[in-house]
Amino acid sequence: MSHEETYTLLKARVEAFLANLRRRGKAARTIKRWSVELDRFVAWVGDRELHEIDAGALELGFLTEWEAAFRDRNGRAPALNSTRAAIQAVKSFYAFMDRFGLLVDADGGLIRNPALALELPVIPVKPELDWLRAEEDNALLSCSMSAREDIVVFFLRMTGLRLGEALALTNRDVDVGEGSITVRTSKTVSGLRSVPISPELRPHIERWLAFTRREGFYRPDGAFLVTRNGTPMKPQYVGPVVARVAERAGLTRRVTPHTLRRTFGSDLVNRGVRLEVVSRLLGHASTAITEKAYARLEDTTIRTEMLAALVG
Which of 104, 172, 291, 300 keeps 20 to 30 A from 66, CA to CA? Predict the structure, then answer.
């Protein structure tokens, strides 16, 4: 096989892998991210055949050159999340090739998957609390806000939606009559779900809908979190809104939309809601994810439950 044929075949295999991901419902954002990394991998492989590349070449060749190229592009070392994405892309591609019997040597014999030796970096959980304590939460929600600030802060805090999920909602997705929010766009299949509208959130939604109708930028199929131009709010807008309100409320630490999501989940856990329920509401693929990042019980909760058990 010529060098050009080898390169073309590898590109075709990568495209087949990406198509497989789409059929399996992998998040579009992940596919796009992995596609970029696999383009770099294909360029690194060049005119070699896959069976010529062993685990050592992947670790000491590809990943070393990948990190150097990252430094050249960005002027800094890659974050662990970036490194993890590159390794995941390569490992997943090799796993696809292996699953369908496409990892073969020059004679057509099956070879061992060399990417199995690659280890994903462990992303440490931040030592600082990324959710608001009760006094911080109360201060934030009691703060004076404009109509847009109010819906952004209360909606994210009382639904636990990811920012991307919230910004993708249309007015039809937010059904005040039925008391539910339908999440149709998410980073994972498990993220597609229905989230109830709490009694505390309902008046904020009703006021927002009345405001958008009165101002003339309400559309049934339009964005729920809408700008005056009728377009969806952008992350670059929402992040500063949350930070501004938090500063006005007197909070001294950084507060982001994701802080509000974690506050939602942690608050429910501390109120005694079962981990399985919290996991479903957050759109997690498993309770392990919820337990790792959200289920940090406050000392008062632990003490109350222990005393209740002893008294009972």
Answer: 104
pLDDT tens-digit series, residues 119-141: 999 877 554 557 898 899 999 99
The residue with tokens 């002027």 is: 75
Query: Is the predicted pLDDT of residue 308 greater than 90, yes or no?
Result: no
Confidence of residue 287 (pLDDT cuts 50, 70, 90): confident
SS3 230: coil
Q: What gap in Å lies between CA 218 and CA 202, rounded to an integer?
A: 18
3-state secondary structure of 195: strand
Q: Which amino acid is at 69?
A: A
Contacts (Cβ under 8 Å, ≥6 apart) of 233: 148, 152, 167, 223, 225, 226, 227
Distance, CA of 42 to CA of 287 (rounded, Å):
36
| Cα distances (angstroms) measured from residue 92 to each of 7, 26, 135, 310 | 19, 12, 44, 50
219 touches 160 (CB < 8 A): no
Between CA 103 and CA 97 the distance in angstroms is: 6
